[in-house]
Amino acid sequence: MSTLSTEQLLHAYRVMRTIRAFEERLHVEFATGEIPGFVHLYAGEEASAAGVMAHLDDEDCIASTHRGHGHCIAKSVDVYGMMAEIYGKKTGVCQGKGGSMHIADLSKGMLGANGIVGAGAPLAAGAALAAKLKGNRAVAVAFFGDGGSNEGAVFEAMNLASVWNLPCIFVAENNGYAEATASNWSVACDHIADRAAGFGMPGVTVDGFDFFAVHEAAGAAIERARAGEGPSLIEVKLTRYYGHFEGDAQTYRAPDEVKHYRETRDCLMQFRERTTRAGLLQAAALDAIDAEVEASIEEAVARAKADPKPSPADLLSDVYVAYP
Questions:
Q1: d(CA 293, CA 185)
Q2: So what's the pLDDT on residue 63?
Q3: What is d(CA 65, CA 148) in angstroms, rounded to the nearest whole number?
Q4: Which end of the chain has less neighbouring CB within 10 Å, N or C?
Q5: How far is residue 37's CA from residue 87's CA, in Å, rounded to a whole number?
Q6: With contact defined as beta carbons under 8 Å apart, do 241 and 262 qualify?
Q7: How far, in Å, CA of 194 to CA of 236, rounded?
Q8: Per-residue model confidence as pLDDT tens digits over 190-239
Q9: What range(s) does the Dehydrogenase E1 component domain occupy (predicted)?
Q10: Is 300 exposed, middle or buried (0-12, 13-18, 19+ CB in 10 A)?
């Protein structure tokens, strides 16, 4: 914790607070019926995205999941552009054609959220291969859930990453449920990270409610990849505060399960307590970030609602690659 500067700590908190405010506002807005398509919220998992992305820049690539808003925000994708995209507006980062599950911004190294479970791992492996061939020390990170950890595409990507010694980091965000199926039933081993041994790479399981634990594990894996020492697997154990999708009745969860996590394990709460108790940050500075973030989300929603939708003339734009 002491290795991070005040600026870095404040940035980490801002990222996590922005993700939380963005998702909780979407939870409210989706209920109005104005947002098209499905929405899968990342609230509760903020420490994972913030802890990993703190080590990356725009040259590094990530491949996300259907629950990708937090990854986008932590990778510095524009919050207003994301909100407009989710509302299906022309001003969105994908001109309103991607929606919640398909936000991408290649200028930030965000290869895209993905509605196909586990499909991001091969994309990240490809990006890592490109980085290796270019010799630019860039890395690629593949995020997937406990359900995705059972997908063959993930296994194939991990195998190739080891065979080719790629600068690729695989991050399994184990929130306890693959849709409604508990991971302690559907995943054969005790820890997803144990599977790393089968692919000849290091594997570690970390507390996903602890930003500093994620930050340390990700830093070690990313530095290892940049040094040419190959891929790693990180399992981040955490929980999501909302259903698999907006509208999920969550009958598979125990009574007060989410309430317990919010009150005792919340990553934002723990971050505030640890940094202020150690004298590294002042509560007033964190309160100011809270207010600034709330104002930015309010502005993003207002602008997105007022923006135009794509027109019929936009139907075939950005569908095919145009070659000179």
A1: 38
A2: 98
A3: 9
A4: C
A5: 9
A6: yes
A7: 13
A8: 999 999 999 999 999 999 999 999 999 999 999 999 999 999 999 999 99
A9: 16-312
A10: buried
Longest dimension (CA), the chain: 59
Q: Identify whether the C-beta of residue 142 lies closer than 8 Å to the C-beta of residue 113.
A: no
Q: Is the dihedral of CA 46, 174, 62, 80 positive or negative?
A: negative
Which DSSP string do the residues of 11-60 spell out, in sequence order? HHHHHHHHHHHHHHHHHHHHTTT-S-S-----TT-HHHHHHHHTT--TTS
Classify 168 as helix, strand or coil.
strand
CA 18/CA 100 separation, integer angstroms: 16
Contacts of 78 (CB under 8 A, 6+ apart): 93, 105
Compute how many other C-beta atoms are within 10 angstroms of the C-beta atom of residue 94: 17
Domains of the chain with CATH codes:
6-309 (3.40.50.970)
Strand bridging mode 203-207 / 177-178: unpaired
Low-confidence ranges of the chain (pLDDT < 50): none
- % of the chain surpassing 70 pLDDT: 99
Look at residue 319 in the predicted model and tell me its pLDDT.
80
Separation between Cα atoms, residue 174 and residue 205, nearest integer Å: 10
- Nearest by Cα to 111 from 143, 85, 147, 87: 143
- DSSP of 178-241, one letter per residue? ETTEEHHHH-SSS-GGGGGGGGTS-EEEEETT-HHHHHHHHHHHHHHHHTT---EEEEEE---S
The upper half-sphere exposure of residue 218, i.e. CA atoms within 13 Å in the direction of its Cβ, equals 28
Pairing status of strand 181-182 against strand 177-178: antiparallel
Q: Which pLDDT tens digit goes with each residue over 226-275?
A: 999 999 999 999 999 999 999 999 999 999 999 999 999 999 999 999 99
